[in-house]
């Protein structure tokens, strides 16, 4: 049994024997055996030692934030898998600390003068994976996974009003989200698929032909994978590799559309694999067995 | 010859015959023949009609922005290809209009009380592809392609200080950028490649084995592409498709690392293809010839 003082949790804390603790603000010296989860009992709430150490480190970092004259900093919520900017609000110190302890993106409402956790009414929480400060220490990224649409309008993100509308070739039906390249392509393919259902026979775009003919699509995926490998085996230049990889991605994404699989789901698989000590170990096990 | 009034460019404007113009703020009715570029001559600066129409539409949109008591809104610069949040600043109306006309991300400096264009000293401009407003109309995304590192420290983005530092399994050497899933994986693979050079022989991780043995790597890429196709051909469930696509991506990304090709370069290829009226047309031409 040991007692520590801690501004977030001033009660005395119990810790099971064997765990090493970081008590001071700066360090990250928690290295108790990974397989055994040790807990600090904070009043009636059980919280792992690791959380305690993270919050302790965060307190120190937050001391260095340049809060504005209202005690606020800009807080941007970003989808950890797709990179989509979900929403932007403001956070004070308590909002960031609440975000850290609850792992739900929490902001300070300037109009209501109170903390609010995104999702507290809609249940569409943004589940935090990491938090970053910028070089000036007055801007924060909440990197997280949303449970559902973030915008109160039901849109996936709050940014659906283009000012420039430059993509004249890309007629995205009822969806003008600020999409980055991969997701913009996904949206275009998805639109072609929707058009296909309503269409008479006639001259189809390449994407539509791929969407209709599984045999053509699969033969193209195999062919493009082959060509990507050849850029390595035959020592072709880097621009060929980038070009063939683009082909692999595009054709594979058409297959995802046929199967109704979102690229975000693929990213989630990748993230879960390499955060659970990695693809590498899994692959290594498979390859050894 | 026709004259219009326009707040950005109050001089009379000349337009070559045949082009149709949108004069009023709201519409987007410019549809002069795509192959022939028509120009408005704005004082001594030649600017295409399309720019004029975009700016005209933007003026109307900016009328609806909820600028704060200092006339500012939050402006977030995001990499159009990777989704990385590059930096965050503030913009007033003039900053947004300058961004639109110059196609370089421009902000309002609160400390110097003046406009500044990112890159005006470093030459690392952020070249604008699109601009989005959020649902509350008080937050702006500048979606663009950076010429080089955005941060004044030389870092790719300004967000390199993790508050949580949750990724204990991922030891990213001297690089703690706020990376989303695909780029986080790319960073891990790149780190394995760097370690490989310095390493004695011994038990290697799967990624390192792939990095060392091109034949193994290529056979895995072909095998994973095959398995992805089979999820369609043999009607396997969606989770299998997501999992096999993750395998394709991971192994293909190891090949990119071997060839020193960034996934961002691949995204650029994709964007350029489908913004030049699309992959589809290119593919369609190839397939017909």
TrEMBL record, chains A, B:
Pathway involvement of the protein, from the record? Amino-acid biosynthesis; L-histidine biosynthesis; L-histidine from 5-phospho-alpha-D-ribose 1-diphosphate: step 2/9; Amino-acid biosynthesis; L-histidine biosynthesis; L-histidine from 5-phospho-alpha-D-ribose 1-diphosphate: step 3/9
SUPFAM superfamilies in alphabetical order: all-alpha NTP pyrophosphatases, HisI-like
What GO molecular function terms would the record report?
Answer: ATP binding; phosphoribosyl-AMP cyclohydrolase activity; phosphoribosyl-ATP diphosphatase activity
Q: Which InterPro entries match?
A: HisE, PRib-ATP_PPHydrolase-like, PRib_AMP_CycHydrolase_dom, PRib_AMP_CycHydrolase_sf
The protein's name: Phosphoribosyl-AMP cyclohydrolase domain-containing protein
Q: Which GO terms describe its biological process?
A: L-histidine biosynthetic process
User: What are the record keywords, sorted?
Assistant: Amino-acid biosynthesis, ATP-binding, Histidine biosynthesis, Hydrolase, Multifunctional enzyme, Nucleotide-binding
Q: Which reactions appear under catalytic activity for this entry?
A: 1-(5-phospho-beta-D-ribosyl)-5'-AMP + H2O = 1-(5-phospho-beta-D-ribosyl)-5-[(5-phospho-beta-D-ribosylamino)methylideneamino]imidazole-4-carboxamide; 1-(5-phospho-beta-D-ribosyl)-ATP + H2O = 1-(5-phospho-beta-D-ribosyl)-5'-AMP + diphosphate + H(+)
Q: Name one Pfam family in it.
A: PRA-CH
List, for all copies, the residue spans of the domain called Phosphoribosyl-AMP cyclohydrolase.
87-160
| UniProt keyword Nucleotide-binding present | yes
